[in-house]
Design goal:
The chain is mainly beta. The protein contains five helices and 40 strands. The two termini are about 40 Å apart. The protein has a single domain, classed as Maltoporin, Chain A.
Length: about 675
């Protein structure tokens, strides 16, 4: 029996044992004192958290989007961006990289995404498996734009997105929803959250399936063209127990599977995963947060020829695994200081198995194998110092990384090796820092400023896996070096009236040794480090609450340019691919009574370029989404949603005029219970 299977099978037993362990540790703490609140959160934010530009998305905003999907909720923060404009029902999973501040990307995340403190990114590709997280099970999201690596681990170049699961107090004992749309696609979700032992447990599942929409424009369809069919499910369980008044233990397990068909009949793609994590949080005099986790992921993809419409590449198996953890300690150093000492570790390992086929004969022409192992050990120290109206913060971090066991091997149909390369192991230290200040000018006005740096290792995908989006071939590059960012931002948080919050931030970021896809020949690209990407701009956010009416708005303007010399000289001054100048989101809502709400969300994404040469344009797109909920009987409500209400044309890919489209107008209706 494999180690992965043993752990997964043992998880339910551990979940059942945790309450008993908690009761044995302290039978009197929870039951005898009803004031003790068992929370599944980590340690509280530090006094200098406001020094960095962050926005909060609360539970009501998360569960009232037009699509009901996590990436839709995150899009309420202008500057949040996936590599492409497609959502997780109609995109290739490996293109779901996340970034902030329009730094640019190549489908790998430049922002760190954490779920209850655990990184979500795929160990091989670096993409975010959005379908693995049901937004109905979240309580809040904090998006920090910029801010450096600090205590969040290597990879938080453009910022950090922290997802916090809902506690039992935020969830009904039973909550469920069932919706259907105008294409007869369905969305089913259910969660139970009983009190267990000295705490609580949650168990939830979600199933989304549908025939999808046409991603291919009508004038480009051929007999092999099909809708973007999708079928995905996820399960997640969590136990949170009190081991006394100052100590909690959190155990989480999750599994998911996601299958899609893109553009052509037979062009199947998908991913699956299993995660387990254990967390101990101590809130005594010596506070601590200890996390350990293990992840197993897989990805597959079939490439169909766009001229003969037969399989030409079967990326049949890309197993990957990640292990890691984090320890943070906050010693008692006085009320004026909050000292954070910690370390984190992440190991990512994975392999690629794929077969190439002749478009003319259908015979297998080549077998390909590639993979490697990356590790990163980080140590950090950070201190917040409160001096009356001024709060100062500063921290340093050292990362020891290794890139090792890399290989690329080819064989013919019979299995005879035709090429084999192993790459030298590499390792080094990288140092980063961050610091900031908050000045409380008045009771309703704060000024803030921060400067920071960070790094991101190249992923196994970037190092070893070539890919084709016909007719363009993109080669891997085993010689890639880590990306390094330096930046600063200044801004203010102002509450001029009760119920009105306004924030503004100006920023300047430089991403050195940026990894991007560089054109090196006709229909041929390679991932390479270029000199830098410079990104500067402004971010404006507003939140207004007047009785039953609410408004949330976010606007980002970013001027981003690539800096290149030598082989990348032709890119110098060009905007990075997939990078808009303007991004905006505005939601107006009306909630006259409990569980009664109407909301409209207007979004705009500016013009982007598909490629590094600025030849293929993705036009600007503006969409309107809607949400409405009306209570019926008891905890039962009727829900209606609409995506892209005015059916705007969203071009998500444009390669020489060959295009893909985003979500058309889609109307949902159904019921929710217990929300």
């Amino acid at each position: 029996m494999s180690r992965k299977l043993q752990i997964l099978l043992a998880t339910p037993l551990i979940l059942q044992a945790a309450p008993a362990l908690a009761q044995d540790a302290d039978r009197s703490g929870y039951a005898a004192d009803p004031e003790i609140v068992v929370t599944g959160k980590g340690l509280a934010e530090t006094p200098a958290t406001p020094a960095y530009d962050f926005q909060e998305i609360d539970r009501e905003e998360i569960v009232t989007t037009g699509s009901g999907r996590l990436e839709d909720a995150l899009s309420k923060v202008a500057g949040f961006q996936q590599f492409r404009r497609s959502d997780s029902r109609s995109s290739n999973p490996s293109a779901q990289g996340v970034t902030l501040r329009a730094i640019g990307g190549n489908a790998t995340s430049r922002a760190q995404v954490l779920l209850d403190g655990v990184p979500l990114s795929d160990p091989f590709f670096g993409y975010i498996p959005f379908n693995a997280v049901d937004p109905n099970r979240l309580e809040s999201i904090r998006v920090t734009r910029g801010g450096g690596t600090g205590p969040f681990g290597a990879g938080a170049l453009a910022g950090t997105i922290e997802l916090d699961s809902a506690d039992a107090g935020d969830l009904a004992p039973i909550q469920a929803s069932a919706l259907i749309n105008d294409r007869s696609e369905t969305e089913l979700s259910a969660t139970v959250a009983p009190e267990v032992g000295n705490g609580y447990a949650t168990l939830g599942g979600r199933w989304d399936r549908g025939k999808g929409f046409w991603t291919t424009p009508q004038d480009q369809r051929v007999p092999a063209s099909v809708r973007a069919k999708y079928d995905s499910w996820s399960l997640a369980g969590r136990v949170v127990q009190s081991l006394g008044s100052d100590l909690t233990v959190q155990l989480r397990g999750a599994a998911w599977d996601d299958d899609r068909v893109l553009r052509f009949d037979g062009a199947t793609t998908g991913s699956e995963g299993q995660d387990v994590s254990l967390r101990l949080v101590g809130r005594g005099d010596w506070q601590f947060d200890v996390i350990g986790y293990a992840q197993w992921r897989n990805f597959y993809n079939t490439v169909i020829s766009s001229t003969r419409f037969v399989p030409v590449l079967d990326q049949k198996d890309t197993p990957a695994e990640g292990q890691g953890g984090k320890i943070e300690i906050r010693p008692p150093v006085g009320e004026a200081h909050t000292l954070r000492l910690g370390g984190d570790f992440r190991r990512s390992a994975g392999d690629l198995f794929e077969d190439a086929y002749s478009a003319f004969t259908g015979n297998r022409t080549e077998q390909r194998f590639a993979g490697g192992v990356n590790t990163d050990l980080g140590l950090y120290a950070e201190d917040d110092w409160v001096l009356g109206r001024v709060t100062l913060t500063g921290g340093v971090r050292a990362d020891r990384y290794t890139i090792r066991d890399g290989y690329y091997r080819t064989a013919d149909d019979a299995g005879t090796v035709t090429g084999s390369t192993t790459y030298p192991n590499r390792s080094d230290w990288e140092f980063s820092w961050r610091g900031g200040a908050v000045l409380q000018v008045a009771e309703n006005l704060k000024l803030r400023g921060a400067a920071y740096s960070g790094l991101r290792l190249p992923t196994l995908n970037e190092l070893y896996r070539p890919f084709v989006v016909f007719p363009v071939v993109t080669m891997a590059n085993e010689n890639l070096t880590p990306e390094k960012l330096e930046g600063w931002d200044v801004g203010f948080d102002w509450r001029p009236l009760p119920g009105v919050q306004l924030t503004a931030t100006a920023f300047d970021n430089k991403l050195k040794d940026a990894i991007t896809n560089v054109t090196i020949g006709t229909n041929l690209r390679q991932r390479r480090n270029i000199d830098a990407i410079d990104a500067s701009g402004v971010e404006l956010d507003a939140a207004l609450r007047f009785g039953a009416f609410g408004f949330d708005g976010s606007l980002a303007y970013t001027e981003a340019k690539q800096r290149g010399s030598g082989f990348a000289a032709a890119l110098d001054g060009y905007r990075p691919s997939q990078t808009p100048r303007w991004a905006a989101s505005a939601t107006a809502s009306w909630s006259p009574a409990a569980r009664t709400k109407v909301a409209l969300t207007l979004r705009h994404v500016g013009r982007q370029f598909e490629d590094d040469q600025q030849t293929d344009i993705l036009p600007a797109a503006t969409t309107l989404d809607a949400f409405a909920e009306v209570p019926l009987l008891g905890a039962l409500s009727f829900v209606a949603r609409a995506e892209n209400l005015f059916d705007a044309k969203i071009i998500t890919r444009n390669q020489g005029g060959s295009m893909d489209l985003g979500t058309p107008r889609t109307v949902w209706a159904g019921f929710r219970y217990g929300f």
